[in-house]
């Protein structure tokens, strides 16, 4: 089985801690968004999950250690714009090497992706643009059809057409996996591009996982309340939940609330007040909850 379990994982670079005591489970068969500010530790976490860097603590997949464990490593691919492929190699050669490396590689699918993303087989990797390098990672990550697919910033530098293609390809891949045997972890700064894909969100900041939470729970426990300044003030006086965002403009006020476990408290407090309540959408939810705490 392919659940990741991490226990007290630390990664130090000199005196700085890129991972600072990560302990969590990342369930199998789901699509997880890995979200956090610049420098939060997303790439480092993905590299640790892929067994590519030594860390203190435990990183296991299905109970087996990942690092230096070839049968487990064969089930995991990490792909993304910053995965350093040899610069002098041609796109076609890199795809041939990947075909030989991954037992689950789908050559026809790789060809189709290379074609729709217009990657020139004869181009050298270091001659590709930023977006084309990302696309190269996307082709690797998808065509390997690995049990565990770790995609590091797969939208980085992509134009709108290619973002849309990638989004639809990911949806198709997830749909194909009807039994939920595969796990996808996608680090992204653009949750807008992944809204319908994600089952859960992993929040990371300062090298610590702050939350691993189902999207349904995330959205249902985050609401936006809008009304006049005085009505919203009255609403706030009647609730105990925390305010994630607070904006006022021209006599009206808009707040985003974390309802916690008591999701009906805010509705009770809003009864009789001229305040509109609705669930926040996923991008805003992720934005306000993923914001760095000073
Ligand atoms: N090879 C390295 N040597 C030294 N420090 C590193 C190295 N890799 C990462 N770090 C540091 O570890 C921290 C986490 O970096 P990481 O790349 O994992 O963050 P990230 O969340 O992926 O950031 P971004 O969103 O900006 O890409 C940062 O402070 C970074 O400077």
UniProtKB/TrEMBL annotation:
It comes from the Bacteria. GO terms for molecular function: ATP binding; ATP hydrolysis activity. The keyword Ribonucleoprotein does not apply. Keywords: ATP-binding, Nucleotide-binding. Pfam families: ABC_tran. SMART domains: AAA. Residues 4-231 form the ABC transporter domain. InterPro entries: AAA+_ATPase, ABC_transporter-like_ATP-bd, P-loop_NTPase. This is Putative ABC-type transporter, ATPase subunit. It comes from Corynebacterium glyciniphilum AJ 3170.
């Amino acid at each position: 089985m392919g659940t990741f379990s991490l226990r007290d994982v630390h990664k130090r670079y000199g005196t700085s801690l890129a991972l600072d005591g990560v302990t969590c489970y990342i369930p199998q068969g789901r699509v997880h968004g890995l979200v956090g500010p610049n420098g939060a530790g997303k790439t480092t976490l993905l590299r640790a999950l892929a067994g590519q860097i030594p860390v203190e603590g435990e990183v296991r997949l299905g109970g087996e250690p990942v690092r230096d464990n070839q049968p487990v490593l064969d089930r995991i691919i990490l792909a993304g714009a910053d995965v350093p492929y040899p610069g002098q190699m041609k796109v076609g050669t890199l795809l041939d090497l990947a075909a030989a490396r991954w037992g689950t590689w789908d050559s026809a699918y790789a060809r189709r992706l290379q074609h729709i993303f217009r990657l020139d087989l004869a181009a050298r990797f270091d001659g590709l643009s930023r977006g084309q390098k990302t696309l190269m990672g996307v082709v690797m990550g998808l065509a390997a059809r690995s049990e565990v697919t770790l995609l590091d910033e797969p939208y980085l530098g992509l134009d709108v057409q290619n973002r849309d293609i990638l989004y639809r390809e990911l949806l198709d891949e997830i749909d194909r996996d009807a039994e939920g045997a595969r796990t996808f972890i996608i680090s992204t700064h653009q949750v807008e591009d992944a809204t319908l894909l994600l089952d859960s969100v992993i929040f990371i900041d300062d090298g610590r996982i702050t939350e691993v939470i189902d999207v349904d729970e995330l959205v249902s426990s985050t609401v936006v309340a809008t009304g006049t300044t005085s009505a919203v003030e009255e609403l706030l006086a009647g609730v105990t939940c925390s305010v994630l965002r607070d904006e006022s403009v021209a006599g009206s006020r808009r707040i985003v609330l974390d309802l916690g476990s008591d999701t009906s408290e805010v509705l009770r407090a809003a009864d009789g007040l001229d305040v509109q309540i609705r669930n926040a959408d996923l991008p805003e939810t992720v934005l306000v909850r993923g914001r760095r705490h000073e």
